[in-house]
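Hello forum,

I keep getting stuck at the same step: I have a sequence, I want structure tokens, and every attempt I make locally crashes halfway through. Rather than fight my setup again tonight, could one of you with a working pipeline run this one for me? It's a single chain of 151 residues.
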Amino acid sequence: MDGNGWIKLHRQLKDHWLWKSEKRLKWWIDVLLTVNHSDTKVMVNGHLIECQKGQSIRSLSTWAKDWNVSKKAVRDYFKLLERDSIISLESVHFTTRITVCKYEDYQGQVNAKYTERKREVTQTRMIRIIRIIYLSFLMFLGKLFRATNEG
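Reply #2:
Ran it on my machine without issues. Output:
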């Protein structure tokens, strides 16, 4: 993970059970910040492992170290998320693959059409404003030209 970019958080998160625990919420946001935003491959103990968008290849020990908790606490938390169909867990070559369920719904291009449409509307408005300014300038030049020719 390169530490660049951003994630989306929907306002509905405030109604979710994760919101009620500061620790669980922080860990969930860390999971979202850690999973890949594009497909890649990761080398783990000499094994090349595919890691798709919305997935992370990290050991439970690494998560535990990052969160300053026991490996059991991490496992219990991930199992809780898995039971609620928020993530899926998979053991892969001495590590764990976490897959955020519905990642595309939360972080994907769902809003791309809305953003594109908004951009088009903004561009259309800018073109209208430029046309108005241009026409106003032409009218000003026309009045100035007439005033110069009359006087």
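The longest helix spans residues 112-150. If your local run keeps crashing, start a new thread with the error log.
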